[in-house]
Design brief:
Layout lengths: L14 H21 L3 H44 L2 H12 L6 H13 L3 H13 L3 H14 L6 H14 L3 H14 L6 H14 L3 H14 L5 H12 L1
Helix pairs in contact: 5-6, 5-7, 6-7, 7-8, 7-9, 8-9, 9-10, 9-11, 10-11
């Protein structure tokens, strides 16, 4: 009886090809394992991202505060422009017709109104004096603001602009003192970067380069994303 031989339908696989395939799989797995980041690396990157995000958010908050102040000043200016000239002339006519014996009464009413100015109006008054180079009145007005509203949102700005009034008069010792006071009294205020910068400038004018260098370096270190940082960097290059 003849034996029937069945040929296998599975094709023969070359041994060399099997070895190459095995080496390819091993190589692919090793590359994949190298590309996989360790949990510690991921945690470090997440912390760095959180830190950068926090810095960006802080910068946005500062910009928002500055925009609020600018918007307030623009609104104030628009209201003054919209005021009718007739109303001003009528007020002047009425004032000119007041009898001399009533002059003191009108003056006292005016002073009472001045004393009751809102924080925003008092701040604008001091700032307008500064813009018009009436530095003495600007300083007095900002002093009044700080006495009445020491915890108001614009308090750090008022103190800063008071320092600018002294700086404009070349009283650099006083301006340095006030600019540094801004950073200690209102450490979370939006004017801290600019105050540190101008304190550095003041010390430069006083020929105290070491103190100026210290403050300018603080600006770069503490407020690297502020507008004051590149100015501080540029001024440091002049000193070194």
């Amino acid at each position: 009886m003849k034996k029937i031989c069945y040929k296998s339908r599975i094709p023969a696989i070359n041994a060399g090809k099997i070895i190459l395939l095995f080496l390819f799989v091993i190589g692919f797995c090793s590359c994949a394992s190298k590309n996989e980041k360790q949990p510690n690396d991921i945690e470090i990157e997440m912390k760095l991202l959180d830190k950068r995000l926090g810095a960006v958010e802080e910068k946005i908050d500062k910009l928002y505060s500055r925009l609020s102040i600018i918007q307030f000043m623009v609104d104030n200016h628009e209201q003054m422009i919209k005021a009718k000239p007739e109303s001003l002339s009528s007020q002047e006519t009425a004032t000119s017709q007041i009898m001399p014996e009533n002059t003191e009464k009108v003056s006292s009413v005016h002073e009472a109104r001045e004393e009751n100015l809102s924080p925003q109006k008092l701040y604008s008054k001091g700032y307008n004096y500064l813009k018009n180079k009436n530095y003495a009145k600007s300083i007095d007005t900002f002093d009044e603001f700080l006495k009445k509203y020491p915890n108001e949102t614009l308090a750090d700005n008022a103190l800063y602009w008071k320092g600018e009034a002294f700086y404009a008069q070349s009283d650099y010792k006083k301006s340095a003192e006030i600019f540094e006071l801004v950073t200690t009294t209102y450490p979370e205020g939006t004017k801290c970067p600019d105050a540190l910068l101008k304190a550095g400038y003041s010390y430069l004018m006083l020929k105290n380069n070491e103190k100026a260098k210290e403050l300018l370096q603080k600006v770069i270190k503490i407020y690297p994303f502020s507008n004051a940082a590149p100015k501080a960097q540029s001024k440091l290059k002049e000193i070194l």
